[in-house]
Amino acid sequence: MKKLITICTVAILVLGTSIAQANLTNGGFETGDLSGWAATPSYVSAVTFAAGLAGTPDWSPVDGDYFAYLETGVGEGIYTLMTQDFWANEGYSVEFDIFFDTEDWDPWFDDGYAKLMKAGGGAETLLYSESVATVGDFGADGWTHISYVIGDSGVYYLEFGVENVGDNEVLSAIGVDNVAVVPAPGAILLGSIGMGLVGWLRRRRTL
Asked: How far apart are CA 183 and CA 22, in angstroms?
């Protein structure tokens, strides 16, 4: 009995460590700053509100009090960037909310994106891409929820970017909120079953 309890406890600890490793830092930006993220400082900030560009809707967080706001202005063809590394197991999902907003027009197709890369030279996966060409002149797409399932366990690199194309005269921006790495449902269920089993075995010993 002791041996079975020990095995279950170790399994739960390993699972718990795996789940903890998956968490990004400050994915909701509720620290009020960009703690945990590497960013182009002058054009990236955690904000409570952002005025819509060229008459598009004003922006507020999807959840909580803050979201990340990335704005062009570094220079024509130069991306404003925000990045973070994290660990994720196979079957976990990368999730976030994002919008693209522009005060530019055709043919100056400013663009914004989100992409995922595996550390050590893995292939890039484009998770989100919008531009003036897709949202229209002075356009925006609204908050969009993105979810992507991780295929292989490892260290990943999540990157958000926005750039001015053809000129650096007017602004475009992306907003990002609720960035998270979510354990697979099966992992959560297994952990719950394991903890329940340990509790049952301990209660049985006391009877």
From this structure: 7
